[in-house]
Design goal:
The protein is an alpha+beta fold and about 300 residues long. It has helices at about 1-15, 30-55, 75-85, 95-105, 110-115, 210-225, 235-240; strands at about 125-140, 145-160, 160-175, 180-190, 250-265, 270-280, 285-295, 300. A 4-stranded antiparallel β-sheet has the order 1-2-3-4, with helices on one face.
């Protein structure tokens, strides 16, 4: 009986289930992975959205247009010339000097008129007349106030001897909204424009065309310039491309071509030339200078 009890007891021990160790899964549910998936999906959705809602973008180039205002200076120049002739002219005579003062009052402010009371001495022995006026510049300094540079040429008579004088001055003129004008600054010695010392480059023939072509082009130019002074627009169109040379309608007789210079530029020939004409009206020689470009299709033509 005792043995039987032990066997049952051992059997019951074997039938009890053993405890299992829990296994923990790592990595597949991390928050960082979830966030990356969310970002990827969001990017795909945003890309699809942008593809359907995209707006074409064009680069806009803005062009700034600067409008140049042309100022009409004719009135200022006329007013100045009239003033210059009155101001720079006088006679050694009391009545004439008084008349000059009255005339200047039409041009100058009262202060300037008073300033010039002592310009001409009472015992002056010269008579002055203006032979010419050159207006070099009219510049607006401030609103309605202009500086004007001019040269006056004068004939000076003293004791029946004549001499000539030339001088340059600057004045200031105010022009109001009604185009009325007044001299606001006395003539002040100024610098006149002088001859420029620039030396333009002189072209030279570079032997780029052969003698036969040179003779052919020279013959064409002689024929053209002989007919050019009296050629009509229709006649010019045979020799010249439209707009290159105007119809001049002058009483000129062709004389010769002086020192033509030829250079080949591809299929074109560049020509620098002086054309001598006799002006039948004045009997003087006219030396006209041209810089032309010729090209040959069926015939030679001046294209530029």
């Amino acid at each position: 009986m005792l043995k039987l009890f032990k066997k049952k007891q051992e059997k019951s021990k074997q039938s009890k289930p053993s405890k299992q160790t829990k296994v923990k899964t790592v990595g597949t549910r991390k928050k960082s992975v979830l966030i990356l998936w969310i970002l990827l999906i969001s990017s795909l959705i945003f890309g699809v959205y942008k593809n359907f809602t995209a707006i074409d973008q064009h680069t806009i180039h803005e062009t700034e247009i600067i409008e140049t205002e042309i100022v009409d200076t004719n009135a200022l120049e006329t007013f100045t010339e009239q003033f210059v002739r009155a101001y720079h002219t006088w006679e050694s005579d009391t009545d004439a000097l008084d008349a000059r003062t009255v005339e200047l009052s039409e041009y100058m402010t009262d202060d300037l008129l008073t300033l010039n009371d002592e310009m001409i001495p009472e015992n002056i022995s010269t008579d002055i007349s203006v032979t010419g006026v050159d207006i070099w510049s009219v510049n607006e300094e401030t609103d309605n106030n202009y500086s004007i540079v001019y040269t006056v040429r004068q004939k000076i008579t003293e004791d029946e001897d004549d001499s000539w004088h030339r001088a340059t001055y600057r004045i200031k003129v105010h022009q109001d909204e009604n185009d009325n004008m007044v001299i606001t600054q006395n003539p002040t010695a100024w610098l006149a424009p002088e001859k420029s010392d620039i030396m333009p480059e002189v072209p030279e023939s570079n032997n780029s065309i052969d003698n036969d072509t040179t003779d052919e082009v020279t013959s064409f130019l002689e024929t053209f310039f002989a007919s050019y002074p009296t050629a009509t627009e229709a006649e010019l169109s045979y020799y010249v491309q439209e707009g290159v040379l105007p119809s001049i309608d002058e009483n000129y007789t062709f004389s010769e071509l002086i020192n033509p210079i030829f250079q080949a530029h591809g299929e074109q020939i560049k020509v620098w030339i002086t054309v001598k004409y006799i002006d039948e009206t004045t009997q003087a020689n006219q030396l006209a200078q041209y810089e032309l470009t010729l090209q040959k299709d069926n015939n030679w033509r001046i294209i530029y």
